[in-house]
Amino acid sequence: MVCWLTALAVGIIIFLIARFLWELIPAPGDIRDKAVLITGCDSGFGRALALKCVRNGFTVFAGCLTKQGGDGLAKEAASDRLHIVSLDVSKDESVAEAKKFVEEKLGSKKLWGIVNNAGIFSCYGPDDWISLDAYKLGIEVNCLGVIRVTQAFKQHVKATKGRIVTVTSINGRLSSPAAGPYVVSKFGAEAYLDALRQELFHFDVKVSILEPGMFKTPLLDKKAMIDRVEGAWAKLPESTKEEYGEKFKNYFAKAWNTTFHKMASENIYYVVDNYYHALTARFPRHRYYCGWDAKLLYVPMSLAPSWLTDAALRSIAGQEVVPACLEEKLKKTE
């Protein structure tokens, strides 16, 4: 038994060392001859990745939703290798215009990579509070946006045998309550990319998925979360408001913000560096788990029995207030 465990430990160590070494091997070609398209560069991961890629020699087409975001990025980069692209991934026309712009500006460069980074945090509360339009919005940006951009630029990447890199979320493998539109859109994006990875294998195109845990980016804005909850609540029928109660609504918004900001990491380079590795390594990973919470908590939870995962999520949420209609039932069980 001891010999077997020793052999297993040695095997794991050898594997980890070998993987570390082969992941250091760079992809063929000179970075200065390559271009990458990155969506969602107004702030957060996309902005940081665009700056890193420009500094290291890539030509970068940075998709920005707002003029303010694009102007700020251009000023900070101060490089002729950066091209700001006006891009709304939820609109067919916008993606078509972006494609035309990129093809006109490429010149002698080749489009090596697509980085699908744009997304929205479409969380409003329990499903009872959520309209179909909220689901449609989350899917339109976080899932169909990935498909829309990838399909528009895929032929260029196939020609260079390059990379398609997409951020989903740990919520692309592990569902959580009160996040229906977000989770559905992220599961959908992962399903698309899993299919694409297999389809493009013989074209020598590498497809990578990033699954971050919680990070403090503009998506986790406290006021935005409260505004989403209040907006959803205002549209509810009185019967639903009575069922849940103002006390639960106010507690939910506050508790959600507190939990996320308490657990979220400020080191966004856990994500940015994984993006960059997927673009530049000869042997990128199929999946990158970004952040210690993803690696040590959420990925293992996604593999556990459902009853155990559900119990763990309830424990993390630490819900102290229940909907108004359940208060009497809770008192009787105490």
From TrEMBL:
Q: Which residues cross the membrane?
A: 6-25
Q: Does the keyword Transmembrane apply?
A: yes
What is the designated name of this protein?
A: Uncharacterized protein
Question: What keywords does the record list, in alphabetical order?
Answer: Membrane, Oxidoreductase, Transmembrane, Transmembrane helix
Question: SUPFAM superfamilies annotated for this entry?
Answer: NAD(P)-binding Rossmann-fold domains (SSF51735)
Q: A Gene Ontology MF term for this entry?
A: oxidoreductase activity
The record's InterPro entries line, in alphabetical order, gives:
NAD(P)-bd_dom_sf, Sc_DH/Rdtase_CS, SDR_fam
Lineage from the top down? Eukaryota, Metazoa, Ecdysozoa, Nematoda, Chromadorea
Q: Name one GO biological process term.
A: steroid metabolic process
Q: Is Oxidoreductase one of the keywords UniProt gives this record? A: yes
Tell me one Pfam family matched here: adh_short
